Amino acid sequence: MVAVNGRKVLLVEDNDDNRTLFGIILRYHGFEVLEAADGETAVSIAREHRPDIILMDLGLPGIDGLEATLRLKSDPHTAAIPVLAVTAYHSAELDARAAGCDGFLTKPCPPDRVIHEVRRYLGRPELEPRSA
Ligand code: MN
Q1: What is the mean pLDDT of residues 72-99?
Q2: What pLDDT digit, counting tens, does each position of 16-43 carry?
Q3: pTM across the whole model
Q4: Above 50 in pLDDT, residue 127?
Q5: Domain 8-121: assigned CATH number
């Protein structure tokens, strides 16, 4: 297994099964995983814990993933955190980019692709171990 040395991923997903599955996969690959099931919680966890990257489901109860991303990107404290939008709707990509999302993944998204994209946006952390 590739060591990623405490890189923190904030996994935002309101579907319990998907969140559980991707949490397991990310932890298996060595990431520390924070979880949120709605947009408000995602914003507050991001502000408090400063994850290295955020996987943002766009369809969420309360404020959606676009609004959560707008709030994170307008706050200097969290603006630099890469946000990867995850949605079943290809048509949402322009809205996601406009909201400040750095990347875009379409559901259903194979686990390998999620891990690949997370590593890519983190600058290949397996080659640049960082202490927590
Ligand atoms: Mn959803």
Answers
A1: 95
A2: 999 999 999 999 999 999 999 999 999 9
A3: 0.89
A4: no
A5: 3.40.50.2300
Which residue, chain included where needed, has tokens 């995602």? 42
Q: Cα–Cα distance between 16 and 60 in angstroms, integer? A: 12
Instruction: Using the mean position of ligand 1's atoms as its centre, give its distance from the Cα of residue 16 in Å.
Output: 9
Please tell me the distance between residue 131's alpha carbon and the centre of ligand 1 in angstroms. 33
d(CA 53, CA 130): 14
- Give distance in angstroms: CA of 15 to centre of ligand 1: 6
Distance 7 CA to ligand 1 centre (A): 24
Q: Calculate how far, in angstroms, residue 18's C-alpha sits from the geometric centre of ligand 1.
A: 9
What is the residue extent of each domain of the chain? 8-121
Q: What DSSP state is assigned to residue 12?
A: E
Which residues place a Cβ less than 5 A from the ion ligand 1? 14, 57, 59
DSSP per-residue string spanning 31-97: -EEEEESSHHHHHHHHHHH--SEEEEES--SSS-HHHHHHHHHTSTTTTTS-EEEEES-GGGHHHHH
Distance (Å) from CA 120 to ligand 1 centroid: 24
